[in-house]
Specification:
By secondary structure, the chain is an alpha+beta fold. It has a single domain (2-151), classed as Gcn5-related N-acetyltransferase (GNAT) (Aminopeptidase, 3-Layer(aba) Sandwich), CATH 3.40.630.30. The chain is built from five helices and seven strands; from the N terminus they run βαααβββαβαββ. It has a seven-stranded mixed β-sheet.
Length: 152
């Protein structure tokens, strides 16, 4: 049975391992990824962000984060599902969980950065109400060519 739960120190390494797995397959691990994924406590949690994990029994199979941009906006980021469980609805479960957590925290907007070559992911984001918005002039991810936002 799949369960999603907030960050636990004992699962710290999974945020890095799961994200590196998909980043190395489709893109490259960027400097900001190395910093955030190597130091989730100081780089995500201590800055007001949240990290979640998906477990199948005792196996960590996915992760997602909400990175604080400001009091009203968070970035849905660092989302990854291990290859064995892709196309099993785990990503959708993580998105739904993050949206509910954001609503409960009275966050007004969720944004995300992605790449249009990830067609299935873009389709899912749109299904959950994320709309494409203008890309900022300064980007923190080289791999991103689309920014999306959901008003909560």
């Amino acid at each position: 049975m799949i369960k999603i739960f907030p960050y636990k120190e004992e699962y710290k390494e999974y945020i890095k391992a799961l994200n590196y797995e998909w980043l190395e397959k489709y893109f490259a691990v960027e400097p900001i990824d190395i910093i955030q994924l190597s130091n989730p406590q100081t780089e995500i949690l201590d800055k007001g962000g949240k990290i979640f994990f998906a477990l199948n029994d005792d196996e960590v199979i996915g992760t997602a984060s909400l990175l604080k941009v400001n009091d009203e906006e968070y970035e849905l980021a660092k989302m990854a599902v291990t290859e064995k469980y892709q196309n099993a609805g785990i990503g959708k479960m993580l998105i739904e969980y993050c949206i509910e957590e954001a609503k409960n925290a009275r966050i007004k907007r969720l944004t995300l950065f992605s790449n249009t070559k990830l067609e299935a992911a873009i389709y899912v984001y749109r299904k959950y109400g994320f709309l494409e918005i203008e890309m900022p002039a300064e980007m923190h991810y080289v791999r991103s060519n689309i920014k999306m936002q959901k008003i909560l």
